[in-house]
Amino acid sequence: MYSALLALFALPALVIAGGGGQCNTGSLYCCEQTQDPKDAGPSTITLLKSVGVDVNDLTALIGLNCDPISVVDGSTCAQAACCTNNYFDGLVNIGCTNVIL
């Protein structure tokens, strides 16, 4: 039992610390989806413009409907991502890289 608890608490720390080089910067989020900036729809572009971000300047993925991953969450995650910027309480995040947990 203790080893299971240890694994549960250690996994997010390994991912955040760059376990396998996957998440070296930013924070770890669980997103409904991530998308390439060139595939952003009108509503995503409008959200980004409202915070002063031009979608044409983005090179990393955009995360949509993201929540921070916590060790006690326990839910399944559609797409884990390491993102550098969070807007509108996770409605849209930028600078994301997909992470495999």
Mean pLDDT: 78
Cα end-to-end separation: 21 Å
Count of domains = 1
Q: Quick one: how many beta strands?
A: 4
Question: Strand portion, in percent?
Answer: 25-35%
Alpha-beta content class: alpha+beta
Number of helices: 2
Tell me the helix content: 10-25%
Radius of gyration equals 14 Å
* Strand adjacency order, main sheet: 1-2-4-3
Low-confidence stretches at least 5 residues in length (pLDDT < 50)?
1-21
Largest sheet: 4 strands, antiparallel, barrel
Keywords: Cell wall, Disulfide bond, Secreted, Signal
GO molecular function, one term: structural constituent of cell wall
Pfam families: Hydrophobin
Protein name: Hydrophobin
Keywords:
101 residues; alpha+beta; 4-stranded antiparallel barrel; 2 helices; 4 strands; globular; disordered N terminus
Walk me through what this model shows.
The chain is of the alpha+beta class and 101 residues long. It has one domain. Helices cover 24% and strands 34% of the residues. The chain has 2 helices and 4 strands, in the order H-E-H-E-E-E. A 4-stranded antiparallel barrel has the order 1-2-4-3. The longest helix is centred in the N-terminal third of the chain and has 15 residues, at 2-16. The protein is globular, with a radius of gyration of 14 Å.
Show the helix and strand layout:
Layout: H1 2-16, E1 27-35, H2 42-50, E2 61-68, E3 79-87, E4 92-99
Antiparallel strand pairs: 1-2, 1-3, 2-4, 3-4
Short description:
The protein is α+β, with helices and mostly antiparallel strands. It is 24% helix and 34% strand.
